[in-house]
Amino acid sequence: MSVKSSHEAPLAAAYRGRVALVTGGFGFMGSNLVPRLAQLGAEVRVMARSWPPQAEFDEGVHPAVRFFKGDIRDEAVLQDAVEGCDYIFHLAGKSGASTSNESPIEDLDVNCRGLLLLLDAMRLGATEAVIVFPSSRLVYAPKLPVPVPETAPTTPLSIYGAHKLVAENYLRIFGLQHGLKSVVMRITNPYGPYQRPEQRSYGVINQFIHEAMRGRSITVFGRGEQLRDYIHVDDVVEALLAVAMSPAAAGATYNLGSGTGTSLADLAALIVDVAGSGRVEHVPWPQSEASVETGDFCADIARIEAAVGWAPRVKLRDGIQDVITRVHRAPQRG
Amino acid sequence: MSVKSSHEAPLAAAYRGRVALVTGGFGFMGSNLVPRLAQLGAEVRVMARSWPPQAEFDEGVHPAVRFFKGDIRDEAVLQDAVEGCDYIFHLAGKSGASTSNESPIEDLDVNCRGLLLLLDAMRLGATEAVIVFPSSRLVYAPKLPVPVPETAPTTPLSIYGAHKLVAENYLRIFGLQHGLKSVVMRITNPYGPYQRPEQRSYGVINQFIHEAMRGRSITVFGRGEQLRDYIHVDDVVEALLAVAMSPAAAGATYNLGSGTGTSLADLAALIVDVAGSGRVEHVPWPQSEASVETGDFCADIARIEAAVGWAPRVKLRDGIQDVITRVHRAPQRG
After folding, report:
1. Residues with Cβ < 8 Å from A95, sequence gap 6 or more?
2. What pTM does this model have?
3. What is the CATH number of the domain that holds B56?
């Protein structure tokens, strides 16, 4: 979507010629962040395990990007990638609450040990860099009154949430011990281009659109009354850029959401409406999903709005239309 | 010390003939817990990386104990040790805030991955067992008003504290997901027999006694005004036994301390007084210690007192005298 910050000049001033590393730069959020960084004139580095098909990236981005091929746990590649960076957006990692409960040790190794290795590399080669970390709404206790502020209790239901929380603690402790600058973003439910439709736990909007565009049923667990806070990835990207460049944000923890709660049933109906195809089907909750269901969620986003002047801009209907347009434009693999 | 619960009969009823595993059973707390379990008639298992010199264990204990030799991360040994257990006291692990900040990945592997492996072994072979986990006062935010209740904010200053906190989350999540029963004990500053004097971060009382008994200076950082909550290991052992057998305690988190704050300077003076030798010397704070200094701490122990009727019994002066008596009795290696 063509949503740009009104602070385009300060953004360009902050990023032009500066070195920005995006770990997991070919994932959902990274694929949206990297072109924007390139557009702002940053020297962009991407660290990822494999290179994406050329077609998945906007033309004109590749030449501006320097690739570091490796797993986040590959210390030698990591040290190279981090060396001399001004900004580090640590988007590499495993996601998904259900998956993490099935494979907690794999989640631990990638998400916790991987971050510790990154922080150690920063301590050695990029002591002045700011690291922006995508935490999650899943750090919060379930079933809190909405909207949920950053001060709410943090007793996660999933290993994923528990590991996001320990990651937040790592960043705070490395700040105290070694002066590393970090910003924690507790992201709600992001959606948008480059999100794989098979990632249900993470990308329910894209999955629903995927089904609707094929004229299939959208499956909603139970009555679908649970509220979620859906935020378009363009809004996420602008928020990441805003906090990384803001001295006021160093050391802070922010909710990053739209600040609006939408029920799953309403979301499904909206998608069928915008798509003009598909239908909504309600089925009983599967056990694996019910056990990690967190109840209603909507983020209180007053803190980030006050601190850096960021606010969400993409309306849900427009965001859904945007994804549908792109689904039409580029054939999906699913 | 000869401190026994007044509930000796219920304890014997709960433990006689029951299978109790103590991981890290030759460490400080384990060496105190194991003989008590044996005395209560439990079938005691100890899992540890190496066997202690016979002399370190009270006579008559070894024959009642079954040994499982292995690191906590050795899955095959772990599965054997856990199989069919009624109680699991997970005392294996690395301790020390400063050490954890120097070697966070080693701390992660032993304390987090080790616990995940144990929980997985329980899920497979001991679904009805109760696991008692020694968390730490170091999970709390620094410089809280004392006494600190279990509901206080948890933003640890050390990797050690952060990993204790994620361990607490693991136990809660495995309870929700798999029905595993656990009790979390946030232990303050335990002291007593079998604690090695070289472990300053963990065993300041034993270290101070060690110096005083040799007529040396006890080193106190700064003015030594910071309060700590020292609890004798006999009181710790009785609390572990009490919560493991209590259905009311399953899923709970308790502070485990004396409930009394003592300044480090007062502690040092008391030790010199009881020992009749040594002196107190104040030196500036070393950076590595200052950065993990948590300010005054004293635990609010109302929750565990109300839930299981446990209360601390050993007075600090008596506990110090007890350690001194044992230091005299058995020659130290240091």
Report:
1. A160, A199, A201, A202
2. 0.92
3. 3.40.50.720
